[in-house]
Write a structure and sequence with these properties.
Nucleotidyltransferase, domain 5, 5-stranded mixed sheet, alpha/beta, 10 strands
Length: 340
Amino acid sequence: MSQKNTYILGIESSCDDTSAAVLKNETILSNIIATQDIHKAYGGVVPELASRAHLQNIVPVVNQAIKAAGITIHDIDAIAFTKGPGLLGSLVVGTSFSKAFSLALGIPMIDVNHMHGHVLAHFIDDEGKEKPQFPFLCLTVSGGHTQIVLVKNYLEMEVIGTTIDDAAGEAFDKSAKMLGFDYPGGPLIDKYAKEGDPLKFEFAKPKIEGYDYSFSGLKTSILYFIQKQEKIVPTFIEDNLKDLCASIQKTIIDILFVKLIKASSDLGINHIAIAGGVSANSGLRNELHKMKAERNWKIFIPKFEFCTDNAAMIAITGKFMFEQKMFANQSVAAMARLKI
């Protein structure tokens, strides 16, 4: 007798992307993302504008995801949504929608930790792509988070290293702003870095104990360096843009990998994954491939569409929670701060 398929509807609304995905067992049938361009004019995400845009986008995005998956709402076994962490107003939209959807259809709802989702994106079925074996380490890097996560199984994870101030993604975006790029500037640093000399300029690297990170000192170092050079040559940024991008990117990646290498060596774990928006960075991916050769790491890199915030990662996490009947009730509330 054939086993019944499980369909999970995933909802992600933690920041400025409204996303809905349909998962059949461990295969993504659809993953729709509505990106909010309005924030570019303000140089960063404006929480009030983000939550209003989520309100406008969520119903059309969900309808599109269900239609693209070729199913009806009555095929859905459960709805999984991001409870946190993230922008509270944005999270409330996804949480409220999920409560109503669950109530209307009489199906369970599953509250997912956003960071948990980034890690488990590696378990989405993708044409026979190999998946990590437990335990493994996952470097999770985004605009708001930088963590080394010890992943013991699908639902048991431990953050063994985290940033004590700013995230790596924020360091990319703030550095990009200093160089005159529009928000989000991180991808532009990556673009220009490919043609620059990563050894041209040196910036301060923090000395933090254990596996923790710090990026506030690096941002200050870059700012003071640029200001000093512009007093001597007003066109310094324009004259050295590619080399600046390459040097900034190398410094951030070096900081990330020093701790990741230490954790891998100390714990004797060579299955290493990356996740989060910054995992789309080509320099980070190249360094991981370099470590694969030098340190005999088994590496796992998500597809680009599963790096940034997306509902597919929420749906796959929801699937593992669904199997353990880890359901939320109607009293569940969105949480801006939420630990793994």
